Known about the structure:
Blueprint: E1 2-4, E2 20-21, E3 24-30, H1 38-48, E4 65-70, H2 73-80, E5 90-96, H3 101-118, E6 123-128, H4 138-143, E7 147-153, H5 163-181, E8 191-196, E9 199-204, H6 211-214, E10 227-232, E11 235-236, E12 251-255, H7 260-273, E13 278-280, H8 286-299, H9 305-312, H10 325-337, E14 345-350, E15 354-359, E16 368-372, E17 375-379, E18 392-397, E19 403-407, E20 412-415, H11 416-424, H12 429-436, E21 437-439, H13 459-465, H14 470-483, E22 536-538, E23 551-554, H15 561-569, E24 575-579, E25 581-582, H16 589-612, E26 617-621, E27 630-631, H17 634-647, E28 655-660, H18 666-674, E29 679-682, H19 683-692
Parallel strand pairs: 1-13, 21-23, 24-26, 26-28, 28-29
Antiparallel strand pairs: 2-11, 3-10, 3-17, 4-9, 4-10, 5-7, 5-8, 6-7, 12-14, 14-15, 15-19, 16-17, 16-18, 19-20, 22-23, 25-27
Amino acid sequence: xxxxxxxxxxxxxxxxxxxxxxxxxxxxxxxxxxxxxxxxxxxxxxxxxxxxxxxxxxxxxxxxxxxxxxxxxxxxxxxxxxxxxxxxxxxxxxxxxxxxxxxxxxxxxxxxxxxxxxxxxxxxxxxxxxxxxxxxxxxxxxxxxxxxxxxxxxxxxxxxxxxxxxxxxxxxxxxxxxxxxxxxxxxxxxxxxxxxxxxxxxxxxxxxxxxxxxxxxxxxxxxxxxxxxxxxxxxxxxxxxxxxxxxxxxxxxxxxxxxxxxxxxxxxxxxxxxxxxxxxxxxxxxxxxxxxxxxxxxxxxxxxxxxxxxxxxxxxxxxxxxxxxxxxxxxxxxxxxxxxxxxxxxxxxxxxxxxxxxxxxxxxxxxxxxxxxxxxxxxxxxxxxxxxxxxxxxxxxxxxxxxxxxxxxxxxxxxxxxxxxxxxxxxxxxxxxxxxxxxxxxxxxxxxxxxxxxxxxxxxxxxxxxxxxxxxxxxxxxxxxxxxxxxxxxxxxxxxxxxxxxxxxxxxxxxxxxxxxxxxxxxxxxxxxxxxxxxxxxxxxxxxxxxxxxxxxxxxxxxxxxxxxxxxxxxxxxxxxxxxxxxxxxxxxxxxxxxxxxxxxxxxxxxxxxxxxxxxxxxxxxxxxxxxxxxxxxxxxxxxxxxxxxxxxxxxxxxxxxxxxxxxxxxxxxxxxxxxxxxxxxxxxxxxxxxxxx
Length: 694
């Protein structure tokens, strides 16, 4: 199950789940893996140069800023009094405690201690992170949350284990703490900032230039580190909140994730498919969810952080002729099973061993790099640290879909092409791809005259049965058929929403007011062919399928009737076709509604059964309408089917194709795809073409 702890039931205009940021990010790392206090001083210089990238209220309260750093051995030896302390033999966890500190701090501490004991992580010391309020304005002091820190030992049972195994053990303890803490009403506001044997996070409702001076640990001369990455937040169209301050445990993110809602549903579906549940903390931002997904990929899927970042946010590889066949095979294989996290996004990431920067495929956020003999840095702006010119080896920028990272295990840095070539050599991805992929172009051709045109209704009667009218054709479909272009207007067009009109225009109209805030005209795969694709893979995801299963790749989710017939006739991927029709009651509205509900629930059960019987493709069709059979609203059917499959833990067993006459506009198609279909065959478009262009 999915839990979003303590989400308010009161509907308000402001929704924390719609948070979007435009921020400043960056990292600095010592290329020799030497821990020094000088790195913190240089980080403060970088943070002081970008106050304009963070938001600030009229009272001087920052929208949020913080740092993620490696654990300082010298510092923790000092505060624990244990001079024999060694790297990898201890861990550190930092927490925001509940909003009601007076009554529930003890409950939160007891919860943490309970799970530390359960996982045999014996406590060395609890402490309050010391702060210097004199560097903040009075209003900002009230906005800060205290951070509680616990230092704990490696379990005796893991005395001979690797640090990776210790990290995994810590992660299991953290998941248990979160699952309990996020579900208890009295612990509202409880949040683990970090818990690791390698890194820790300091953050708050701060301005960038306040971070280092505010946390007195960070200007302690004994606090020596080799890597730091930072974030300063600018809340775009949202309210500042301490919970949304960054960095997170593995990353910091500048941008917004346009696919966040879909990604959350996918995370829930993956958890259910594995008989688990995912816990999203109340008020979690899109960036916070991305860090949570990255955490799962590293700790559950056992990917290293670089591979996970590349797979989750791949470059636009389809039309890039500079990539080698091995890299193309790797990225195409990733595309068969990966749920994309679509930007715009500039990411800074680190697991304590590797630190790097990644830019989304369209490159809509800035990242500038500088390298000296001692340091490698990537930041939102050039010149954030004033290195003497004689020390600088190289300056540059991260390009669209690019990456630059430093690996402290090898002492080497890698750019985008080096990263991908290195990863592509780790497995024979071409062989894996050949085993799992089938392209529609390789299927036997189907001629248009092989498609049966026989039907109980004429084409005009079918249009009426699908609730289409002259408006559907005159203003939407016919101009596109004539010109090959969709009409572009300012922020949509003047259609009265269904809820405010007595004229029913189909379910998709209920969603006609949802649009991108800033992108106009819309980006599309034609104007932006170097950065976008319509390519879709149909069938069970390789990670949830039988060894011999394949996915069928199509170049566009909008299928012609001949293409759908090719899919039906092939035998490599099992296909099941189901009717989405019901018997209407024209005399009794309630009876008609009941019949509709029973019908789509019955189809949901059929879909579940087909998915469990390894049907890789399920076609939902309303082609068989008749005098006593009406079409179930396609959008309703797709949404119900998608949610039912997620709930039953079979969402990644099958892909849904909708064969419907109800779609006559790009918006109709977009909503059906957006609510769960992988592809659509718009019958009424086919019928209109045969009528106008015989």
